[in-house]
Specification:
Blueprint: H1 5-12, H2 20-36, H3 41-77
Helix pairs in contact: 1-3, 2-3
Length: 84
């Protein structure tokens, strides 16, 4: 059973509080619901918007991880950095 548009929209406000794993899991569920069909146009739009918010949130997490990795590499590659 799918969530009502109001519930989906209400849930969209909590995306920023999700971990990467939680957001990715919810995104997979949204995509599955959209692929399965059988929901109204209004529900499809609400699911799509939720999916977009979740995808953006996941991308922000990944970009943050890329920046942290780059910073860590820069520190270890810097002259005089301790190795080992």
């Amino acid at each position: 059973m799918t969530e009502s548009p109001a519930k989906v929209t209400e849930a969209a406000t909590d995306v920023s509080q999700l971990s990467y794993e939680e957001a990715r899991e919810q995104l997979v569920k949204v995509v599955s619901q959209l692929e399965a069909g059988g929901v109204s146009l209004e529900q499809s739009l609400a699911l799509w918007e939720r999916g977009e918010a979740l995808a953006d949130h996941c991308e922000q997490w990944l970009e943050g991880a890329r920046k942290r990795l780059a910073a860590a590499r820069d520190q270890t590659d810097a002259p005089g950095a301790a190795k080992g």
